[in-house]
Amino acid sequence: MAKEEIKTQPKLEPKTRRVKAITRYLRIAPRKMRLVIDTIRREHALEAVGILSLLNKKGAKMAIKTLKSAIANAKNLGLDEKLLYVSDARADGGPVLKRFLTRSMGRADKILKRTTHLTVEVREGTKIWGGKSSTDAKVKNKKKAAAGA
Q: Residue 10: inside a domain, yes or no?
């Protein structure tokens, strides 16, 4: 009888979990909200909360709530809060409220009151935020290189 070959599957990198929070029907135009969320994309989650708290815009307060909700969702799933970063933030258009403003000579102007669906997605990264500084890491790497040589 022939020997059975043991097949080993190649080890794949574990997929990082994506956790998101969605806030719908926000009474702000998506264009204005995108100015706010562009500042936090690809930032560490805790740092992004700090950035948003310093912004003097209406959309920043709404974005903070959604981001904190995403962080809380990630913590409930067992992810490390210090490793989280904002992987994606989207401001999609929601339904539009249409109003009319009366003008002179029997005319009317259309007023569009836009709404936004805000989606904030966080992932677990490799870099720890709020840990040791980068200079400490450089010194540690130099010691490893010297010991290995």
A: no
Domain with 33 in it: 18-148
Q: Which pTM value belongs to this model?
A: 0.76
Per-residue pLDDT of the chain (149 residues), as tens digits, is: 455 655 555 554 456 789 999 999 999 999 999 999 999 999 999 999 999 999 999 999 999 999 999 999 999 999 999 999 999 999 999 999 999 999 999 999 999 999 999 999 999 988 776 655 445 555 566 666 666 65
- Whether 82 is in a domain gets the answer yes
Question: What is the DSSP track for the chain?
Answer: -PPPPPP-PPPPPPPPPEEEEEEEEESS-HHHHHHHHTTTTTSBHHHHHHHHHH--SHHHHHHHHHHHHHHHHHHHTT--GGGEEEEEEEEEE---EEEEEE-GGG-EEEEEE--EEEEEEEEE-SSPTTSS-HHHHHHHHHHHHHHH-
* Of the candidates 20, 24, 51, the residue with the CA atom closest to the CA atom of residue 122: 20
The CA-atom distances, in angstroms, between 147 and each of 12, 97, 136, 143, 144 are: 31, 67, 17, 6, 5
